[in-house]
Amino acid sequence: MALKKSDLYSALWEACDELRGGMDASQYKDYVLVLLFVKYVSDKHAGKKGALLKVPEGARYADLIALKGNKEIGDKINKVVGKLADANDLRGVIDVADFNDSDKLGTGEAKVTRLSKLIAVFDRPELDFKGNDAQGDDLLGDAYEYLMRHFATESGKSKGQFYTPAEVSRVMAKVIGIDSATSASQTIDDPTCGSGSLLLKAYAEAKNATGKSLTLYGQEMDNATSALAKMNMILHDCPTAEIQKGNVLADPQFKNKDGSLKQFDFCVANPPFSFKAWSNGFSPAHDVFGRFALGVPPAKNGDMAFLLHILTTLKSTGKAAVNLPHGVLFRGNAEADIRKQLIQRGYIKGIIGLPANLFYGTGIPACIVVLDKEGADSRKGIFMLDAAKGFVKDGNKNRLREQDIHKIVDTFNRQLDVPGYSRMVPMKEIEANDFNLNLPRYIDSSEPEDIQDIDGHLNGGIPDRDIEGLEQYWKVLPSVRGELFESAGRPGYSQLKVPAAEIKQTIFGHPEFAAFQKSIGKIFESWAEAVRPRLEGIKKGDKPKQLIHEISEALLEKFAKAKLLDAYDVYQHLMTYWAETMQDDAYMLAEDGLVATPARIIEADKNGKTKDKGWDCSLIPKPLVIARYFPHEQAAIDAKQSEQEALAASLAELEEEHCGDEGLLVDAMNDKDKVTKASVKARLAAIKKDPDAGEERAVLERYLEQAEQESDLGKQVKEATAKLDSDLAKKYGKLSLAEIKELLIDDKWLGRLREAIHGELDRASQTLTGRVRDLTERYASPLPLLSRGVEELTNRVEAHLKKMGASWK
Prior knowledge:
Elements: H1 5-19, H2 25-45, H3 61-65, H4 73-87, H5 102-105, H6 108-121, H7 138-155, H8 166-174, E1 187-190, H9 197-210, E2 215-220, H10 223-235, E3 242-245, E4 264-269, H11 303-312, E5 314-325, H12 327-330, H13 334-344, E6 348-353, E7 366-372, E8 381-386, E9 392-394, E10 397-399, H14 402-414, E11 422-426, H15 427-432, H16 454-459, E12 462-463, H17 464-468, H18 471-476, H19 478-484, E13 485-487, E14 493-496, H20 503-508, H21 511-536, H22 544-558, H23 567-592, E15 599-604, E16 610-616, H24 622-629, H25 631-658, H26 677-686, H27 694-734, H28 737-778, H29 783-803
Parallel strand pairs: 1-2, 1-4, 2-3, 4-5, 6-8
Antiparallel strand pairs: 5-7, 6-7, 8-11, 9-10, 12-14, 13-14, 15-16
């Protein structure tokens, strides 16, 4: 059975729920991740010859399962984990969490129950990692990443710094040219590696682009976090990565035989921002490694110290991306002197400004400083990019979207000049600004001011310059401008030619807009035709990540020249749909092949009681099959449901009208103050011979008739739905491979994406409609018109007052 990412993620977070209450997120991650590690290595390596990890008897997940309900479960879990640690030299890595800690896990039966439930979370068929080879080990790595992100979110400001957001890590990895690595002997270092996520993103980028498994080095000051990094390396199939403990400034671990610092081809780092105790344990002024030859950073701020350490550890062709607070770009004194020399020597290739509130340890905005020793002597400028506005809100943090990542990387790597976003800044300009690198000095990313035209307000008319400001639309819809506007009777001003209520209709109904829609549709269908063989050809063993990379890049390329649409917005729709639905489908296909297999839907409540909710097929949901093969049957059911709902509404109206004080249905209520068919029948029997109850009898009979009809329709809907469900089940068993492809690719995947493209078209046209309407309303009432209106109202008020014998003067 294919292991869906969504299933794995929900199971992992369920494990976290079992521990909440006794400890905070920064602590319970250690327990959950250890069990994930044991389960993974047991499934992947136990009993296999030549396996990278040894999983001896008594150190497998099965041994943990056997402990459920055991009174000594905590101590015995520690022994199982310890045995696995001893077999693989992982003491101090996977055994840092004490499963017998009563302060955190409770005592007695409470501890036994909690740990038993925690073990059971991973003991389920859908979390069997033995049979998911086709998906690659990235599945577990992504799961680990998922947990790291959620733990960081819940750990709070002081404890979330072990994790660099994956989106930022990807940008940093992509802008240092690691995708052009040429040899497996090349190296990547992260001197403040935390849980290792940033280092692994750089590794993955190189491997995906070149197939080269570069050598990894990392150092982390916090013992528990360095243990997380080592586990992370193993879960990402990088067990040979060298992860060391210690303060990299006071005691760097990677050195050559002569005692000098080891140098690397690439470096990525997210050092602790403005670290005050950076010089503890050594004398910066007498640094034996010569890292501060360009100057000693301020005693209470270590940002430049980390940057200089990284610069020293780069080879002569080395490249690095370092995430730092914006202060390094403009702070004075010692930092200004260091910054000046870095610039003059050409070490800084570029600066990327990021949105605020991306990181878990701080809400301040950061920037990526890109260092490149290769070609430093001939560097004539620094490429600057301000991406501060490209993000989406995600809970209480901001997050880079896929489109933001792609745009940053494309723009930086191609050195594109984009107004208000990026430009190559010459060294002379930087020197003229006293080597201050504050981005707003060089890139004006502010929104252009929407200038109010005084003459337009005084004398009426829409300024032509505002209309010309919509030039991108008039290039595509040249005749629409003439349909909307005409001269206002004086130079430089126009007026709306159609009623304001018809602006949208004029735009949407114009042949040029129809042609524009058709052109966008052609672009989409061209892409769909190009990627169809790839989508139809998904088979067992394929790599879903490679699939989405190929089809998304093709989409971006197709829409690169589309008018009025942002290609990155279109790209984002595909990537969002991939994350929500399509990737689970792709992983199922990569594991099971193209098979539409229905499954029962079993839901469990908090007490563990299960309920069968019927069946469905996650790959090809029922509505898709109904729409294609049973539309008339579904339409008939929908019609009956609508009729039933109308009757139910009519009954509710009757009750509302006649159940109040002295209402005609009051005496038909049962002992629960409800009107039912039985209570109505009883009341009709009671007043059968009452000659004065004619009006009440009529209402009761009307209610009963409608209630019988509503009930009968309910039975018909239920029977028709059951028959349709039965017919659907039979149809699933008869679906041919060609039919499955049509349903999945055309109806599900491409159908959803076509809707997204239509949404982009609507957004573009609504933007034009909204702007035209705003301009019309802004200048609709010039000052003379307003003055006349005030004069007319004043005269009317004075007339009324005069009639009343009063005056306001």
